[in-house]
Amino acid sequence: MTRSTDEALARAAVLALIAQAELTPKPGLADTRDLQARATGADLLALRWSAKALAPGFAAMAAAARRPGEPSRALREELGAIGRCAEWTMARAGGGAATGPLHHGALWVMGLLVAAAALRPGAGPGEVTATAKRIADHPDRGAPRRPSPGSHVSATYGAPGVRGEGRAAFPHVRRALDALSRARAAGATETQARLDALLTVMSTLQDTGPLYRAGPPGLRRVKEGAHAVLEAGGAATPEGAAALAALDADLRELGIAPRGSAALLAGALFLDGLPVHGLPAPAVTASPVR
Q1: Which sign, positive or negative, has the C-alpha torsion 158, 149, 207, 65?
Q2: What pTM value is reported for the model?
Q3: Is 5 left (phi over 0), alpha (psi -120 to 50) or beta?
Q4: Which pLDDT value is given to residue 286?
Q5: 3-141+160-272 domain in CATH 1.10.443?
Q6: Residue-wise burial string across 234-250, b where 16 or more C-beta atoms lie within 10 A, e elsewhere
Q7: Which letter does DSSP use for residue 278 in this model?
Q8: What is the DSSP string of 179-206?
């Protein structure tokens, strides 16, 4: 691998983040509607700028992974240091919000997957996520000791969060990829397939965002609502689309945003867009914001 390959991985990661941000209608989450309505408290343009600001950090993570060629504690700590710098840049690019307009879990998910893809060029999603787990298993001595909202929720409710997902080889990223394949095979549009993939994650993930905002009852509404859409046939059916609209209205009214699910969908879109063993993969496209 070369510097140009590192930059290509970084571009693919940024495109995946933007594609996830622009996917519409996402229940309770910022999307193209938020250019006019601030229902989610996040401006889509800020999300796009934040994603683009991460490109140098992702390229640096890919280069860092290339040097040792194997998962190690030193690599995990270098990725953590790069990620903390990238998070600061992301927040400034998105308007200076303390937590950044992109969920910080998206940086964790994508950083691990970019590094794993750099370590295993041409590998399939299963091998990439397994390599990401080997990186995540190492502790990061440079990580801040202060508790975060996510760590507090994890300690309170036993939810693994996106960090736990990494240590488990990203099971929900792989479920999202399976959902994408099924929906495409059934004739869904790309937007409908991606929405079904997001709902598949939402239906089972112990998402710390809803837990932090509304506790177990809030998370239960997310899971049950997502399951209802899928049971109705998914976003491609009239019944599923109606259930999706009802879930979106419910979560927006309550201020519940399943951002962890969105971060894992972005990881799935990144892997979905990578070539495997030299074969072309579906392009990760993001629609222009109007």
Answers
A1: negative
A2: 0.90
A3: alpha
A4: 60
A5: no
A6: bbbeeebbebbeebbee
A7: T
A8: HHHHHHHTT--HHHHHHHHHHHHHHH--
Q: Name the pLDDT band for 214 (thresholds 50, 70, 90).
A: very high
What's the gap between Cα 273 and its chain centre?
A: 14
pLDDT for 281 beyond 60: no
Q: What is the mean pLDDT of residues 164-185?
A: 97
Place of tokens 């495409």: 184
Looking at residue 99, its pLDDT comes to: 40
Q: What is the mean pLDDT of residues 193-209?
A: 97
Q: Which residues pair with 279 in a beta bridge?
A: 276
> Domain-by-domain residue ranges, the chain?
3-141+160-272
CA 279 to chain centre: 24
Mean pLDDT taken over the chain: 87
Average pLDDT over residues 30-54: 71
Q: Please state, in angstroms and rounded to a whole number, the distance separating the CA atoms of residues 267 and 173.
A: 6
The tokens describing 179, both together, are: 């959902």
Q: Give which of 106, 34, 32, 41 is closest to 254, Cα–Cα.
A: 41
